[in-house]
Hints:
Domain Circularly permuted ATP-grasp type: 87-464
Protein name: Circularly permuted type 2 ATP-grasp protein
Shape: globular
Structural class: alpha+beta
Pfam families: CP_ATPgrasp_2
Amino acid sequence: MSKLDPLPGISPYPLQHFFDEMFADERSIRPHYKHVGRMFSGMSPEELLGKQRLMQRRMMEEGITFTLYNPAQDQPMERTIPFDMIPRIIPKGEWEKLEAGIVQRITALNLFIHDIYHEQYIVKDGIVPRRMIISNVYFRPEMAGLRVPGGAYVTTSGIDLIRHHDGEYYVLEDNLRTPSGFSYLFKGRSLMNQLFPELSFASSIRDVDHSLNRFLSVLRSLSPSRTKDPVIALLTPGEYNSAYYEHAYLAQQMGIHLLEGRDLVAQDHKIYLKEMNGLRRVDVLYRRLDDDYIDPLAFQPSSLLGVAGLMNAYRAGNIAIANAPGTGVADDKAMYVYVPDMIRYYLNEEPILGNVPTYLLSRAQERQYVLDHLSEMVVKETSLSGGYGMLIGSEATQEELVDFRLKILADPARYIAQPIMSLSRAPVLSGAAMVPRHIDLRAFVLMGADRKPHVIPGGLTRVAMKEGSLVVNSSQGGGVKDTWVMA
């Protein structure tokens, strides 16, 4: 281990009982952080503050924002997402295991979704209860028997991982519908290269820029037409969506159309882009809105965001939709419990990455245990994401605990519970001082018609910016770090 002088503001660095990504003990950093540790420990407070101001200015100039919605406020608040300059670094061997486990998981999940909308072998063989499918709010009967271009239901996915105090990684959630965060991964690397070019060049790290080309090629591979240059569009809910910056960024970087539902029209079971000189057929639609809103004729009749007739064109095989409608049946938080069984069933392999222990509150015995230990649990609504509908027992007031107990008793199948995990920590800059904050990792996966998952090297490290908090979601005020994979 490389011995360094205490870093600015930390003397010594408080490890407590958490696993720290950078520090091996209170005064020593891990070998793969050698260059990063030396650089940041050698910078004066004025230099650190100057870099942070420059970073903030660049983010403001480029409009790198995320919109927060607070029920207590009348208006949503747009802000630059907190970006910490100290990168999170993952050694080569450690990443290779993560990558293999993620590929295994996505492969099994894609097979599961196909099975559920076709033969349902996994249900017939008693691995997954039928009621878990039928009662799932994301199950779409309209997808039954429908051929999906390339057989790739999960074109884009975000797998959330945590590292526990034992040093092992665990999968926390699977995000398979419209995962967000891609833009912060790519833009974060670009900003780090601009602000710390000497650090980037001195460290042997995996490149992420080529993954944008892979993203585009994956979308192109799904095109049902035989045209050499398929027309690809990103369907956005519009500029008031919390992730609109990301939609605009990805469309611009990949050179695809950025559209709202009103820009499209269905004719003869095909989807067309309305242009000044007529109509232009669209081959692939990368949608960033939920199933309910993509087609008012098929799903939510009141939706003004989607395209009337889109599902008819999809059924006719005239357009590809990424991700396929109905993929949410596999990222429901209750279905998460069965993913290790899916891996064994479809792949005949043992899971490489473990799940966090999870209690299904529809089971009487597990429900009673959770109710008896509610202050030690994280309780989540199965159909919600982004940190909404969640209780962290250790941080809850007595009134909140009582309220959640009543909610669970009223509708137990609506919730799952997990023990509070000791998320690993990493140092972040607070002013000119380094302070520890809890983190997780969202790993992004791309899958095209070849159904060979590509894991973007590193992914996005999300940071709970509030001291002691375990909530890393951007929608709840969390920040991000650039994530380096050693080459």
